[in-house]
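=== RUN LOG ===
request id: a7f3
mode: sequence -> structure
chains: 1
length: 213
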Amino acid sequence: GGWRKLETLFAGGNELAELPDDVQKLTALTELDLRSNQLTKIPDGLAACVKLRRLHLGNNKVADIPAEVLSSLTECEELHLYRNKLDKLPPELGCLTKCHRLTLSSNNLRTLPESISTCASLTELYVNNCGKFASVPAAAGALTQLTELQAKKCPALKALPSTAVGWTALRELDVRAAKKQVCKLPPELVASLDANRCVIRGGVQKGKKGKKK
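=== RESULT ===
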């Protein structure tokens, strides 16, 4: 009985290989921390935890996130999925309209779903160290609350969408490569970011040699 009223559950670093389906009974949860386990999948039953505000699944072995779970995270403010085995995210990512911090670093992602445009509260987005990450969708230009975008060590990311000029709240853009800079930043984007006092780290600016700052 008492478990049903549980609001926070910290179970990180416990070598957990799976999450029991009984998690669907924990409908009062607002924070669930499962970082640094051995999880390979997330049960659909987690979709019953509709009050979650912080969900931490970083440093596991998760290959995909059920669409049902993402579509239930309408109250989620922080979603941490770094250091997993994700190669794509379903369109239901767009249901996270209250999420302000999304960490996707160290995965196998190639891009993000167009629906990320409806994550209107997003202020921090991290996709560092994703070796296959090649594009930020044009729809992401709608993220007008974004203050920090980190895409360090993403060698396949050769450019940002022209719609990036819509990131008027951006204060830090980090696209530093491990060695030679590869992400081209068009002059109009650089001018827009400079006008908004955004710190630009890495990238290739026209007429300038790409250097780490």
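=== NOTES ===
Confidence is low (pLDDT under 50) at residues 209-213.
The first strand starts at residue 8 and ends at 10.
=== END ===
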